[in-house]
């Protein structure tokens, strides 16, 4: 992986709780809060300059803007939710562009596992552990924060072990 291991290690304690919070609130309320998105972006903006050379830091921030524009377009087309688009944009600077293939494979596997797990629990007595969650009653809609937050967390965890 291209992300430096020390960078992933420094980001992980700040980002991991946000990822858990995003997954939880999306399961419970079917929404990713603006506060979580802003916290994720703010962590990168504050911590990033200490971990990256200025040109790399600038490019990583540019990724946030590029993904935000793409997310707004996808949201306008009804392909993804607004919270999903904002979270993806806030998560974008944490991903090294050379790791995009790794991230896409990780996201695909995570999405499949999260979807199957969510649907299995939805139709079993395990659902009673959290009976009030809105995601249980949303038909075909799926709480993507579970996969988005999980994928970013796993990317950073793997980056601590296999990063450059």
UniProtKB/TrEMBL annotation:
InterPro entries: Prepilin_IV_endopep_pep (IPR000045). GO terms for molecular function: aspartic-type endopeptidase activity. The chain crosses the membrane at residues 6-24, 36-55, 61-82, 94-118, 138-158. Keywords: Membrane, Transmembrane, Transmembrane helix. GO terms for cellular component: membrane. It comes from the Bacteria. The keyword Transmembrane applies. Residues 15-116 form the Prepilin type IV endopeptidase peptidase domain. This is Prepilin type IV endopeptidase peptidase domain-containing protein.
């Amino acid at each position: 992986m291209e992300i430096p291991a020390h960078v992933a290690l420094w980001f992980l304690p700040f980002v991991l709780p946000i990822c858990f919070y995003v997954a939880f609130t999306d399961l419970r309320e079917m929404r990713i809060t603006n506060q979580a998105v802003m916290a994720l972006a703010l962590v990168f903006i504050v911590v990033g300059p200490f971990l990256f050379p200025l040109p790399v830091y600038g490019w990583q921030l540019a990724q946030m803007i590029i993904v935000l524009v793409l997310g707004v377009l996808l949201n306008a087309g009804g392909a993804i939710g607004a919270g999903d688009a904002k979270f993806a944009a806030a998560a974008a600077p944490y991903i090294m562009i050379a790791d995009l293939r790794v991230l896409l494979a990780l996201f695909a596997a995570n999405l499949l596992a999260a979807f199957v797990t969510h649907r299995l629990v939805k139709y079993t007595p395990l659902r009673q552990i959290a009976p009030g969650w809105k995601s249980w009653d949303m038909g075909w809609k799926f709480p993507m924060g579970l996969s988005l937050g999980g994928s970013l967390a796993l990317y950073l965890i793997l980056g601590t072990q296999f990063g450059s």
